[in-house]
Amino acid sequence: DAGVTQSPTHLIKTRGQQVTLRCSPKSGHDTVSWYQQALGQGPQFIFQYYEEEERQRGNFPDRFSGHQFPNYSSELNVNALLLGDSALYLCASSLGQPGTQYFGPGTRLTVL
Amino acid sequence: GNSVTQMEGPVTLSEEAFLTINCTYTATGYPSLFWYVQYPGEGLQLLLKATKADDKGSNKGFEATYRKETTSFHLEKGSVQVSDSAVYFCALRGSSNTGKLIFGQGTTLQVKP
Fold first, then answer.
1. For a tag on chain A, would you pick the N or C end, based on fewer CB atoms within 10 A?
2. Which residue of B has its CA nearest to A42?
3. How far apart are CA A26 and CA A22, in angstroms?
4. pLDDT above 70 (res A1)
């Protein structure tokens, strides 16, 4: 039973660039949530996708956008990167709403 | 708004010691409560959960009881092992919420042989 997978594992970008992170949910799950975890902090909710629509959004600027595909996989896009966007980005999947969320290993983004 | 507060870390214990990590929450209604664990360099793993008052979640020797009267969900384990060294996060999902998890700041546990 494949768990939640994320790619890439690590990413280094410079300020002002754009980045796309990818997530494949656990088999059988249809809902994907994204979180940002700064060093030494708890994860912060970015948004959640269900049925290819953004259903809920946390307190993040419009530079953060996402997409969910018909196979339930998802992308997180961040435009105009800032140094403060450096963090571990976690994807979590669940079945339906609300469902228990299972997390992937994360993508470590470093902005220089 | 909803929030979660965890005890400050790090918590340092000797192997086979008793563990308690305190977690209290603020929320309206009846949230669901979770404990997640994060090992170095990894994502979060669900450790246990409770969805209504007085429920006890348990897994791998860890336990936590949903106490609505004290708005708490303390994590306990009777005998810790070196392999339990990790960061532990308490989280809640609001009763009217479609899925957003609100996390505490995390508590680092170090277990020494």
1. N
2. B105
3. 13
4. no
